[in-house]
Amino acid sequence: MSLTDLKRRKKKTPKTQVSVEDFIEDANKYAFGQPSVVSQSRIKLSRVKHKGLDKHSTKIYKHATFSLTEDAIGILDKISADKKIAKSRLIRILIYDFSVKSKNEQSTIIELNDD
Asked: This protein's superkingdom (predicted)?
């Protein structure tokens, strides 16, 4: 097994069967600039597909590498275990929480932490 076998792949959209008559009618509508049945069904599929937000949804997570102190890792592990939440999700929450603070609060936090 290679590493490419482990990559997450996008789910394929299901192909709907179209009769010959519908195909011809759709082509005629397209020629006259009218919305086609096939394109409308694709729009409906894309709307349904993007409803939920789970790992296989539209939210794209990018792998990041950064350095943490041993103390920070220990604290992160403890909070993660106590709250039963993934460390990466916890970091995203903390980043968001820091970003919504005022500039003065951010400066104070940065000054108090001298890693």
From this structure: Bacteria
Q: Give the number of other Cβ atoms within 10 Å of residue 49's Cβ.
A: 13
Alpha carbon dihedral 25, 29, 35, 39, in 10-degree steps, equals 50
Residue ranges per structural domain of the chain: 14-49, 70-112
Q: pLDDT digits over 10-65, tens only?
A: 667 777 777 788 888 888 887 777 777 666 655 554 554 444 445 555 567 788 88
Distance CA 42, CA 81 (A): 43
What's the distance, CA 45 to chain centroid? 18
CB distance 29 to 39 below 8 Å: no
